C-alpha cells in the first residue's frame, strides 16, 4: 500500500467492532463481580457491592486448592511441552527426512482433534492400564495439546533463524552444547516464551480434556472445574466472576511483557539474514 | 456381604443428586455432613450427577462407594452387578424405615436388599404465579399448545426434563386423556402406546425452547428466559421461592411421576465401613428431616416428620405429599418383559428421546 | 612448505546432483586463492568441505597435510566469513568478535582486549557496544571478518563476502581485504562469481564449472590463456573463434580466443576481421563495438577518445598476432 | 604462525559433538525419540484404544460393555437421530468457521497492516486477553447477554428494536424463543470464544504479504477491492485455513456451550460426552468419536495441500 | 514533443528526512533515462512519486503534460518492474502477466493471448503454466517485465531490476532491455546504483545525491565532464585533483578531474605527474597503477600488454591536455 494509504472506514469499523465484540462480555463479567445478587443473575443488576472481593479472599478457602492445582498443572504441562516441543521443532527444522510429513501431522493432531476425543481416549487408556487419576493424568492430557503450541512458535523461529549462525558458531570452535547454550537458546528464547505463555493459558483454562482426565476427588479439581461446579450450583456466584477477573488482571502485564519480548526477538532474529 | 463393621477408612465417595448432600455451604442451616465427619472421621466426597444414566455410568466406571440411585437406575445397577447386597442387620435404624419402602421392588430383588431407602418425592409442576393466578390443574400446559391465563401462548415458555424417563410423564398424561390406548403403567408401554407417547413428546418439542437437566440452569431459565411452567423438583421450587420469585408448584389431576431413591453400595466399594456408617447416618440423624425440607421431598423414616430431630413437621410432610405415596408412579426401569407381555425397553427410550429433542 | 589445503579427487554428490565431482586442488600456504565460477558450479560446496560442514562422498581432504575426514568443524582451525555474515543477532559487536575465544574458555578481560584489537584491525574501534542490527552492510561485513580472525585461523574462508555490498563499498573492501591478507599472511580462500573481483584480488585462482575445475592458475594465465571456451567466455567477455575462423586468421584449425581489448579499428588495409557494426555500448573508459564477421560476433573495446564507427556501418578490426590464443583444452 | 591447523579434542562435549557430526541421523533420532514416544505411543495409543472400543457393544439393560467384536455399534451410529447430530454439528462448525473468518478478517487485517507502535500492542492485548479470561465464565456471561430478559433483549426494547429481534428469532430453524435458546445464540457464543484462534494465524499470514505485492497490483491498475480479492485474500488463505482448523475442530468437539446455550438438541461433543459419561455407552461414544476424527483427517490433508501448516 | 515526465521543484520529505529535495527534471518521450546515485539518495522515492505510491510534499509532477497530483497509482498509465519483482506467488506465470488485463475486465481468451505474446517478447513462451517459485532469478525478472508491459504503459519504471542477478545474466539482461526499449519505443526510467549499467544503457541520466540532482546529461557528458567532485568520484573511479595541483598542471586554480584511462606511462621526460607506485591491480583488460603524486593518489589504467612498473618503483604519468577537466560545479 502506498505510504499515505489510510484504512477505509468500513475496515476501521470492522476492526473496532470486532475488538469490542471480544471485550463486551468481559466487561459484563467485571460488572457482575459487583452485583448484589447471590445465586443467579439478572439484568440489570439490582445493586452493586464490593463485598465479593472480601468474601473471595476471606471466606472461601475452597478457591485456593483449585487455583494452586491449576497453576501447578499448567506449569508442569508447559514445562513438558517446552522440552518436547523444542526437541521436535529442532528435528523438524533440519533437512528433510523420511516421515517428516507424518510427524508434523501427528504433532498437530491433539489440537486438531476435538478435546472430547483426546480426553476420552486418554481416559479409556488410563482405565485399561489401571492408571489411577492424579495430577499426572491431568498433566498428561494438557501437555499433549500444549506441545503443538510450543512447536508452532519454535518452528517458525527456527525457520527464520538463518542456519548460518549455528554453523558460524561451530566454525568458531564451539561444540554442540556451547552452540545450544550461547546461540540457539538465546535466539529461540522469546519464541519459547511466547509459546509457553500460550500453552500455559490454554492449560490453565482447559475444561474439556480435564473433565476426562481428572479424578473426582477434591484434590483433582482444577480451577475451571471448580468454576464449572460453582456455575451449575450457584452460591455466591459473583465470586466466580471475582476469580475470573483477578486472573484476567493478573495476566495483563505478563502478556504485555511477552509481546514486547517476542516483538523485539523477531526483529533481531530476522537481522541475521 | 458384610457381616461386621470395622473402623472407618477415613473417607467415603458418594454419587448423589444435586442438593442431596449439603454441608452448610449453600445455606448454613442445612448441614447433615459435618457432624457425621466429626463423629466417624469419614470424610464425605460428593460427585453430583444430573441424570440417572449418568449415575449408572459413574457406578459402572467405579471409584465410588455409594450412590443415591432412583428407581430407573437401581435395577440396572443390580442386574449389572455393580452394587452389593446390604446386610440390614448392620444398620441399627433399619427398623425405623417406612414400611411402604422396606421391600420396595426397585431395590429388593428376590428378597435381597440392595440398599437403604433415602428419600422420595413427586415430579411437580412448577409454575409462575404471575401467569397462573390459580394453580394449573392439568399437565396439558406443558404438552398442548394453548393460551395461558396471561393471554399469551405457552409456546416457548415451557420446559421439559432432559432425560428419557420423561417419556413416562407423557405416557401418564395419555393414561388420563387417551384411555383407549389402555396404558396401565407409564413404565410399561407396548409399541402403540409408546408411539403415542413419542408423538405427544414431539408435539411438546414445538413448545419447548430448551430442555432442562441441570437444576440451576432451570432456575436461571425461570428467572431470565421467561419460562413459566415445567415439570420440576421441589428443590428448584424452594430455591426460587427463597429468592423471592413468584413461583409455586402443584400436582395436577393426572397425578405425577416421582422418584424414590435408594443409597446403594458399589460391589468394589473401597470404604465399606464408612459406607455402612453413612447409611446408618442417613436414617438416624437430622438428614431425613432437614433434607425433606430442603429438597421438598419425603423422608424414608416417617418418624423424622414429627420427632423434632430436624426441621420437618407433620404439616410440612403432608405438604410435600407424604400421604400421596399411592398417587405417585415411581421411576422404574422399563424392560421388555412386562405385564402386557412385550414392552419397549429402556435403551430405545434413550435413543428415541435424543431423536425427539433433536426434532425427529 | 606444506600445502594449506589439498583436495585429492574430492567428490560431493547430493543424490543425483554432483555438486563437486572429482576435484584435485592444492592451495599453498599464504596464498590468496580465488574460486570463480557460475552459480551452482560447486564453489560453496568446496568451501564447506574445507570448513567441515559437508563431508566428501569420495576422495580426501588434507589441511596442512593432515587428513580431516574425522575432524568436526569446531576442531578445524579454519574460519569462515559467511556470505550473509551470520552475525549473532543477540550479541553486541564485541561479544560477536570475542565468541571464538569465549568458547575456548579465554577469560573476559583477555578476550575483550583481543576483540578490541581485532575491531581496530578492521577499523571499527568504538563500535563494540552496538548490536549487528545497528550496523550498515559494510560494517557488518567487517565485524564478520574480525570475528573470523580472532581465533588466528590458519586458513580463512570467504564465501562471496562482498556480494551484498554496492559497487563503491565493494571496491573499498576489496582493497582492504587484500591489504589485510598481505599483513597477516594467512591463507585466504575466496569464493566469488565476479570475474573482475577474482582477477584483481587473487594470486591464484580456480575456475569451476559443473562441479569440476575448468582451469587453475594465476589470474594472468587464466585471463590471457584460457584453457577452454567456457573459461574464455566466463573470465572476461572474450571473443571465441571457431576452428575455421582461427585458421583463416593464420592459426591452427582449433578453437581460439581473442580479447576485445586486443582488437583495434583497422586503418587502411590491415583489417583482419570485417563486417557491419551490430551494437555500440558506451562504457565510460571506452566503447564496446560489436561487428558481425561472417556470422561470428566479434567485440572490440575502443578506448575513449578514439572515433567510433556508427551502428550499421562497415568496420574492420585488426590485432597483433600473439593476441590470438589457441585453447588447448578444446579439441 | 604458531597455532595448529587441527585443534585438540577437549573432553566429552567435544567427543559427543564429533559423534553427532559423524552420524547426523543419531542426533535426529535422539531429538525425536522423546516427543515421538509421548505423542506416538501415549496419544496414538490412547486413540487406538478408543477406536478399538467402538467395535464393542453395550448390554442394553445393565449398561455394561460387552467386549466382543461387533459392528452393531456402527449400525446404531447411522440411526437417523444420530445422523442428525452429525449433520447439525458439522453444519454448525462450518458456520462458526465462516463467521469467525468474516469477523476476524478486519481485525487481523487492521492489526497486520495499519496498527503501529502502541496500537499494535493494543491489538495484541485485545486479541490475547480474552484467551486468558475463563472460558466458562465467558459462556455464562453470554447466557445473560442472550437471555430473553437479558442485555440484548433489554437494549433492543430500549432502542425500540424489539421488533427486529423478534423478526430475527422468527426465522425458521435457526430462530427460537430467545437468542439463548436458538441456534443463533449457540452460533454467536461459539464465534465469540473461538475468534482469537482465527485472528492469530490470519494476522500472521497477512503480515507475510509483502507490501510490494499490493503496490504491484495497484500499479497494474487494480482497484482496492480488486487487489483485495485477487491478491490479499488468496495470499492470506493459508492463514484462514490454519485458523479454521482450530475453529472447526473446537466447535466439532465442544459440549459445554451447546448444553448451556441453545435448544437442547445434541451436538457430537454432547453426544460423546453423554454416551461416555452419562450413559456409559462407551462403544457408541467411541463410534461417534470416529466421525470428527475422520472429518479432521480429511480437513488436515486438504489444509496441508493448501500450505496451511506453515501458517499455523 | 511533450515530455513524458516532468518534475517541477518536487519535494518529498519524511519528517525531517528530505528524501527528495527540490528536483527539477524532464524526461523526454521515448528516452531510456537512468537515475544513478548512492544508496539513500532518493532514487526510489522519485520513482514512487512517478508511479503514485508517494505524493510530493511540494512541487508538481506532470506526466505527458498532465498534472497527476490527484491521480491514484491504478489510474496512471505507468507501470513498474519492482526490484524484488513482486510476482504474485499464487498465480502462474500466465496469470501474473495477464493480471493488468484481468483487472481491466478483458476476457479470458483475449488476455491469455496477449499474455502469451508478452511472454514470447521476453523469450519465455511455454513457461505460462509455471508458478513464479519454479523460475530462476533471470526468468522471474523477465516475467515481471512482461507483466509490466502488458498494459502498454507509456512509461515503464524499473527499480534496480538487475540488482539481484549475477554478472553474466545481468549483462545479458542489459542487452535485452536495451533492445526491448528500442523496439517498443516506450519511455524507460531506470534506477540503478551501478554506474557501468547507467552509462552503458541510458541515453540520458541523472546523478542523485542527498535528494538532489547533482548532474543531468548524456552518459558521455556525465562521464567525461563531471560537474562536481561527487559526480567525478561516483561515476567511474576518476582522479580528482585539488586546485593547486590543477594549476601546476596548467589549468586554472579549480578542482578538476582526470580519468585513469586518459593517463599513460611517461616515456622519457614528458612526465606530468611523478611519484612512487603504491598499488597494482590486475584487471584482465589492463592493470590499474596507483602512484602517489605528492600526497594525491593518482590512478592510471595501463592497457594489457604494456610493461607495468613494479610496486614501490618511481613512475611518471602523462596525459593529453584536453583530458584535464575542470569542474564547474565546484568553486
Ligand atoms: N544440501 C544440498 N542438497 C542438494 N543439493 C545441493 C545441496 N547443496 C548444494 N547443492 C547443489 O549442488 C550444486 C552446487 O552448489 P553450490 O552451492 O556449491 O554452488 P555455488 O557454486 O556456490 O553457486 P552460487 O554461486 O549460486 O552460490 C548446486 O546444483 C546445488 O543445487
Ligand atoms: N517511508 C519512508 N519513511 C521515512 N523515510 C523514508 C521513507 N522512504 C524513504 N525514506 C528515506 O528517504 C531517503 C531516500 O530513500 P530512497 O529509497 O529513495 O533511496 P534510494 O536512492 O532508492 O536508495 P537505495 O539505492 O538504497 O534503494 C532515505 O534516507 C530513506 O531512509
Ligand atoms: Mg555459493
Ligand atoms: Mg531504492
From TrEMBL, chain A:
Key words of the record: Cell membrane, Membrane, Transmembrane, Transmembrane helix, Transport
- Pfam families listed in its UniProt record: BPD_transp_1
InterPro entries cross-referenced by the UniProt entry: Bact_Polyamine_Transport, MetI-like, MetI-like_sf
| Membrane topology recorded in Swiss-Prot or TrEMBL | Multi-pass membrane protein
Q: Does the keyword Membrane apply?
A: yes
**Per the UniProt entry, what species is this protein from, by scientific name?**
Neotabrizicola shimadae
Q: Name any GO cellular component annotation.
A: plasma membrane
Q: Provide the protein's localization.
A: Cell membrane
Which SUPFAM superfamilies does the entry link to?
A: MetI-like
What is the protein's given name? Answer: ABC transporter permease
Automatic annotation (TrEMBL), chains C, E:
A biological process (GO) annotation for this entry?
putrescine transport
In this record, what's one Pfam family? TOBE_2
Can you tell me which residues the record assigns to a coiled coil?
none
Under SUPFAM superfamilies, the record lists:
MOP-like (SSF50331), P-loop containing nucleoside triphosphate hydrolases (SSF52540)
Question: GO terms for CC?
Answer: ATP-binding cassette (ABC) transporter complex
Q: Which residues form the ABC transporter domain?
A: 5-235
Q: Which InterPro entries match?
A: AAA+_ATPase (IPR003593), ABC_SmlMolc_Importer (IPR050093), ABC_transporter-like_ATP-bd (IPR003439), ABC_transporter-like_CS (IPR017871), Mo/tungstate-bd_C_term_dom (IPR008995), P-loop_NTPase (IPR027417), Transp-assoc_OB_typ2 (IPR013611)
Alphabetical UniProt keywords:
ATP-binding, Nucleotide-binding, Transport
What is the superkingdom listed in this entry's lineage?
Bacteria
Q: Which GO terms describe its molecular function?
A: ATP binding; ATP hydrolysis activity; transmembrane transporter activity
Q: What is this protein called?
A: ABC transporter ATP-binding protein
From TrEMBL, chain D:
Membrane topology classification? Multi-pass membrane protein
Q: Which GO terms describe its cellular component?
A: plasma membrane
For this protein, the record's CDD domains field holds: TM_PBP2 (cd06261)
* GO terms (BP aspect): transmembrane transport
Would the keyword Protein transport be found if you checked this record's keyword annotation? no
- InterPro entries, per this entry? MetI-like, MetI-like_sf
Please give the name of this protein: ABC transporter permease
Native species of this protein?
Answer: Neotabrizicola shimadae
Amino acid at each position: 500500500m502506498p505510504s499515505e494509504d489510510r484504512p477505509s472506514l468500513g475496515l476501521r469499523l470492522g476492526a473496532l467492532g470486532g475488538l469490542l465484540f471480544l471485550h463486551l462480555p468481559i466487561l459484563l463479567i467485571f460488572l457482575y463481580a459487583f452485583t448484589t445478587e447471590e445465586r443467579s443473575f439478572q439484568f440489570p443488576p439490582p445493586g452493586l457491592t464490593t463485598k465479593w472481593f472480601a468474601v473471595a479472599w476471606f471466606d472461601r478457602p475452597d478457591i485456593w486448592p483449585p487455583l494452586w492445582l491449576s497453576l501447578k498443572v499448567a506449569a508442569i504441562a508447559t514445562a513438558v511441552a517446552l522440552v518436547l516441543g523444542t526437541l521436535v521443532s529442532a528435528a523438524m527444522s533440519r533437512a528433510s527426512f523420511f516421515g517428516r510429513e507424518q510427524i508434523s501431522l501427528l504433532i498437530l493432531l491433539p489440537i486438531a482433534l476435538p478435546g472430547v476425543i483426546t480426553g476420552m481416549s486418554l481416559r479409556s487408556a488410563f482405565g485399561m492400564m489401571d492408571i489411577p487419576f492424579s495430577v499426572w493424568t491431568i498433566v498428561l492430557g494438557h501437555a499433549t495439546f500444549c506441545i503443538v503450541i510450543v512447536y508452532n512458535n519454535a518452528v517458525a523461529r527456527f525457520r527464520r533463524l538463518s542456519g548460518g549462525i549455528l554453523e558460524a558458531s561451530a566454525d568458531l570452535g564451539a561444540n554442540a552444547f556451547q552452540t545450544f547454550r550461547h546461540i540457539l537458546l538465546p535466539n529461540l528464547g522469546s519464541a519459547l516464551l511466547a509459546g509457553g505463555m500460550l500453552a500455559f493459558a490454554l492449560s490453565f483454562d482447559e475444561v474439556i480434556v480435564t473433565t476426562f482426565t481428572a479424578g473426582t476427588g477434591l484434590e483433582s479439581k482444577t480451577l475451571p472445574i471448580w468454576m464449572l461446579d460453582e456455575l451449575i450450583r450457584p452460591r455466591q456466584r459473583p465470586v466466580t466472576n471475582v476469580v475470573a477477573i483477578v486472573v484476567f488482571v493478573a495476566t495483563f502485564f505478563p502478556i504485555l511483557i511477552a509481546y514486547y519480548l517476542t516483538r523485539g526477538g523477531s526483529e533481531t532474529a530476522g537481522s541475521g539474514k | 456381604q458384610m457381616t461386621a463393621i470395622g473402623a472407618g477408612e477415613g473417607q467415603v465417595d458418594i454419587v448423589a443428586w444435586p442438593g442431596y448432600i449439603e454441608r452448610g455451604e449453600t445455606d448454613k442451616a442445612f448441614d447433615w455432613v459435618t457432624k457425621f465427619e466429626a463423629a466417624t472421621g469419614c470424610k464425605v466426597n460428593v460427585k453430583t450427577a444430573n441424570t440417572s444414566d449418568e449415575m449408572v455410568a459413574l457406578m459402572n466406571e467405579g471409584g465410588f462407594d455409594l450412590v443415591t440411585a432412583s428407581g430407573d437406575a437401581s435395577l440396572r445397577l443390580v442386574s449389572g452387578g455393580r452394587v452389593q447386597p446390604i446386610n440390614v442387620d448392620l444398620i441399627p435404624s433399619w427398623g425405623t424405615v417406612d414400611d411402604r419402602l422396606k421391600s420396595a421392588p426397585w431395590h429388593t430383588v428376590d428378597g435381597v436388599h440392595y440398599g437403604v431407602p433415602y428419600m422420595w418425592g413427586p415430579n411437580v409442576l412448577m409454575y409462575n404465579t404471575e401467569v397462573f393466578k390459580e394453580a394449573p390443574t392439568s399437565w396439558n400446559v406443558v404438552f398442548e399448545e394453548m393460551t395461558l391465563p396471561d393471554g399469551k401462548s405457552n409456546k416457548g415458555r415451557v420446559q421439559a426434563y432432559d432425560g428419557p424417563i420423561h417419556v413416562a410423564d407423557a405416557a401418564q398424561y395419555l393414561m388420563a386423556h387417551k384411555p383407549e390406548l389402555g396404558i396401565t403403567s407409564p413404565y410399561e408401554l407396548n409399541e402403540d402406546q409408546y408411539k403415542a407417547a413419542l408423538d405427544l413428546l414431539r408435539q411438546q418439542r414445538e413448545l419447548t425452547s430448551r430442555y432442562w437437566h441441570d437444576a440451576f440452569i432451570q432456575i436461571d431459565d425461570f428467572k431470565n428466559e421467561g419460562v413459566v411452567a415445567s415439570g420440576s423438583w421441589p428443590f428448584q421450587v424452594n430455591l426460587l421461592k427463597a429468592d423471592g420469585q413468584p413461583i409455586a408448584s402443584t400436582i395436577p389431576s393426572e397425578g405425577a411421576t416421582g422418584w424414590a431413591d435408594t443409597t446403594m453400595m458399589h460391589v468394589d466399594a473401597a470404604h465399606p465401613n464408612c459406607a455402612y456408617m453413612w447409611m446408618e447416618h442417613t436414617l438416624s440423624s437430622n438428614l431425613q428431616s432437614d433434607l425433606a425440607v430442603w429438597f421438598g421431598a419425603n423422608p424414608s423414616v416417617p418418624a423424622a416428620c414429627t420427632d423434632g430431630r430436624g426441621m420437618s413437621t407433620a404439616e410440612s410432610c403432608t405438604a410435600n405429599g407424604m400421604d400421596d405415596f399411592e398417587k405417585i408412579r415411581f421411576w422404574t426401569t422399563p424392560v421388555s418383559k412386562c405385564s402386557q407381555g412385550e414392552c419397549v425397553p429402556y435403551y430405545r427410550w434413550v435413543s428415541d428421546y435424543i431423536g425427539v429433542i433433536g426434532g425427529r | 612448505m606444506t600445502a594449506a589445503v589439498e583436495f585429492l579427487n574430492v567428490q560431493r554428490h547430493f543424490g543425483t546432483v554432483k555438486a563437486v565431482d572429482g576435484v584435485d586442488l592444492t592451495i599453498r600456504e599464504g596464498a590468496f586463492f580465488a574460486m570463480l565460477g557460475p552459480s551452482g558450479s560447486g564453489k560453496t560446496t568446496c568451501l564447506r568441505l574445507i570448513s567441515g560442514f559437508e563431508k566428501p562422498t569420495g576422495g580426501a581432504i588434507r589441511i596442512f597435510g593432515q587428513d580431516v575426514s574425522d575432524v568436526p568443524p569446531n576442531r578445524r582451525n579454519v574460519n569462515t566469513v559467511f556470505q550473509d555474515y551470520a552475525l549473532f543477532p543477540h550479541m553486541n559487536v564485541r561479544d560477536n568478535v570475542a565468541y571464538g575465544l569465549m568458547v575456548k574458555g579465554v577469560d573476559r578481560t583477555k578476550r575483550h582486549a583481543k576483540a578490541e584489537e581485532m575491531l581496530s584491525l578492521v577499523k571499527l574501534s568504538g563500535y563494540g557496544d552496538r548490536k549487528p542490527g545497528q550496523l550498515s552492510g559494510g560494517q557488518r561485513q567487517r565485524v564478520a571478518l574480525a570475528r573470523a580472525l580472532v581465533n588466528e585461523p590458519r586458513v580463512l574462508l570467504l564465501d562471496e563476502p562482498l556480494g551484498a555490498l554496492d559497487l563503491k563499498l565493494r571496491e573499498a573492501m576489496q582493497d582492504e581485504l587484500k591489504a589485510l591478507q598481505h599483513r597477516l599472511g594467512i591463507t585466504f580462500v575466496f569464493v566469488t562469481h565476479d570475474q573482475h573481483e577474482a582477477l584483481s584480488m587473487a594470486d591464484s585462482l580456480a575456475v569451476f564449472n559443473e562441479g569440476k575445475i575448468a582451469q587453475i592458475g594465476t589470474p594472468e594465465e587464466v585471463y590471457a590463456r584460457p584453457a577452454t571456451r567456457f573459461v574464455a567466455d566466463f573470465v572476461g567477455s572474450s571473443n571465441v573463434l571457431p576452428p575455421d575462423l582461427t585458421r583463416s586468421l593464420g592459426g591452427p584449425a582449433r578453437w581460439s580466443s581473442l580479447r576485445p581489448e586486443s582488437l583495434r579499428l583497422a586503418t587502411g588495409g590491415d583489417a583482419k576481421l570485417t563486417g557491419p557494426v551490430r551494437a555500440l555500448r558506451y562504457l565510460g573508459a571506452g566503447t564496446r563495438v560489436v561487428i558481425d564477421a561472417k556470422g561470428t560476433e566479434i567485440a572490440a573495446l575502443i578506448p575513449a577518445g578514439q572515433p567510433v564507427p556508427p551502428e550499421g556501418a562497415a568496420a574492420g578490426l585488426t590485432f597483433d598476432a600473439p593476441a590470438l590464443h589457441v585453447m588447448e583444452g578444446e579439441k | 604462525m604458531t597455532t595448529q591447523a587441527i585443534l585438540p579434542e577437549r573432553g566429552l562435549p567435544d567427543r559427543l559433538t564429533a559423534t553427532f557430526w559423524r552420524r547426523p541421523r543419531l542426533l535426529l533420532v535422539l531429538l525425536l525419540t522423546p516427543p515421538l514416544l509421548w505423542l506416538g505411543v501415549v496419544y496414538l495409543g490412547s486413540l487406538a484404544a478408543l477406536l478399538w472400543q467402538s467395535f464393542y457393544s453395550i448390554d442394553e439393560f445393565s449398561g455394561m460393555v460387552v467386549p466382543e467384536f461387533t459392528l452393531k455399534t456402527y449400525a446404531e451410529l447411522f440411526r437417523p437421530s444420530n445422523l442428525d447430530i452429525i449433520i447439525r454439528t458439522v453444519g454448525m462448525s462450518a458456520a462458526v468457521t465462516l463467521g469467525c473468518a468474516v469477523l476476524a478478517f478486519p481485525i487481523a487485517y487492521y492489526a497486520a497492516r495499519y496498527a503501529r507502535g502502541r496500537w499494535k500492542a493494543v491489538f495484541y492485548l485485545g486479541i490475547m486477553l480474552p484467551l486468558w479470561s475463563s472460558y466458562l465464565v465467558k459462556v455464562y456471561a453470554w447466557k445473560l447477554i442472550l437471555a430473553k430478559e437479558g442485555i440484548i433483549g433489554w437494549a433492543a426494547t430500549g432502542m425500540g428494536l424489539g421488533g427486529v429481534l423478534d423478526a430475527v428469532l422468527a426465522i425458521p430453524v435457526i430462530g427460537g424463543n430467545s437468542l439463548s435458546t436458538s441456534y443463533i445464540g449457540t452460533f454467536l457464543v461459539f464465534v465469540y470464544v473461538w475468534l482469537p484462534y482465527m485472528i492469530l494465524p490470519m494476522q500472521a499470514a497477512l503480515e507475510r504479504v509483502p507490501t510490494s505485492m499490493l503496490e504491484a497490483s495497484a500499479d497494474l491498475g487494480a482497484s482496492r477491492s480488486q487487489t483485495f480479492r485477487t491478491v490479499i485474500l488468496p495470499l492470506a488463505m493459508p492463514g484462514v485455513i490454519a485458523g479454521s482448523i482450530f475453529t472447526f475442530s473446537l466447535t466439532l468437539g465442544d459440549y459445554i456451550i451447546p448444553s448451556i446455550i441453545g435448544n437442547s438438541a445434541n451436538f457430537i461433543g454432547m453426544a460423546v460426552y453423554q454416551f461416555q459419561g452419562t450413559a456409559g455407552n462407551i462403544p457408541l461414544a467411541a463410534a461417534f468419536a470416529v466421525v470428527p476424527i475422520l472429518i479432521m483427517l480429511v480437513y488436515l490433508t486438504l489444509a496441508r495441500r493448501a500450505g496451511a501448516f506453515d501458517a499455523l
